[in-house]
DNA sequence: CTACGAGTTTGAGCGCACTCTAAGTCAAGA
DNA sequence: TCTTGACTTAGAGTGCGCTCAAACTCGTAG
């Protein structure tokens, strides 16, 4: 698989894939006769996992630590386990914070909505086509 | 309230508060005799709300739009409502994505954990003090 | 044969959200 | 009176994660 296809499948740019290789997040890719990167499916799986880490807000430097441990072999499994557990805890805390923010947003939105509804009510001496839509 | 106290209470730095004022996220603060910023409680409330927007990933340029509408008065209430609803939808989608990532993390962690447990089992011909701790 | 599109490299540039520096002012306590 | 520490300004610097530029090389379709 060429870099373009991998980029399309992983939904990131080829630029980003080269950048990841440069910083060590991806191992140096095998090259074809013309020096072009050639990937197999396992790279896609790894990129997808990196995408999960990224979505959950893991900084690249931590992904690098994880990638280095993976490259170092099974002796680092406990360390990798612990890193993921610590990360999961942070993500859970973040989700909880988001949910609390969502509650605040809901309150605020409800406040605006009831204001708007009342304005619409105040409107009811106007002919229909001039009233504000209720949404 | 001086900037230092506001900073402590809002849990952001005084630098950041001045920066927010500079870019228009906070209105220009009243000054005391010596030209120093003097705040009342409403600024703290506004900063706390901005913190919610920030936690939920709203970029500063959108906060600026919201702040500008607020400053423009009640005529912008529907627009503000709509902005918050759109934001809430994005946040909900993000929470869903995070939860899906958490499921992947859980699977990965369980995998590592069972590996580690099995290694501990494989250990059981060793004298106790050489076994890997089970945690 | 040639044109095209996809790839290669190194290194520079960008947008975001701060974060800090330098040089100065001011009020209150020892 | 002196010192301390919190404040003031404009502007420069930082860290992150890309993103793009320039100049180049290939392989293949027409």
TrEMBL record, chains A, B:
Membrane-spanning residues: none
PROSITE patterns named in the record: HTH_MERR_1, HTH_MERR_2
SUPFAM superfamilies the UniProt entry points to: Putative DNA-binding domain
InterPro entries the record matches: DNA-bd_dom_put_sf, MerR-type_HTH_dom, MerR_fam
Keywords: DNA-binding
HTH merR-type domain segment(s): 1-69
Pfam families hit by this protein: MerR_1 (PF13411)
An MF annotation (GO) of this entry: DNA-binding transcription factor activity
Protein name: MerR family transcriptional regulator
């Amino acid at each position: 698989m060429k870099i373009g296809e991998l980029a399309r499948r992983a939904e990131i740019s080829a630029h980003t894939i080269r950048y990841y290789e440069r910083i060590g997040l991806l191992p140096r890719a095998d090259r074809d006769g013309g020096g072009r990167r050639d990937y197999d499916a396992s790279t896609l799986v790894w990129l997808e996992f990196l995408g999960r880490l990224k979505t959950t807000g893991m900084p690249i430097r931590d992904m690098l630590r994880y990638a280095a441990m993976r490259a170092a072999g099974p002796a680092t499994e406990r360390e990798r386990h612990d890193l993921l557990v610590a990360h999961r805890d942070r993500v859970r805390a973040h989700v909880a914070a988001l949910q609390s923010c969502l509650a605040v947003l809901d309150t605020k939105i409800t406040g605006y909505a009831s204001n708007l509804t009342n304005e619409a009510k105040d409107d009811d001496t106007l002919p229909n086509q001039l009233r504000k839509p209720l949404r």
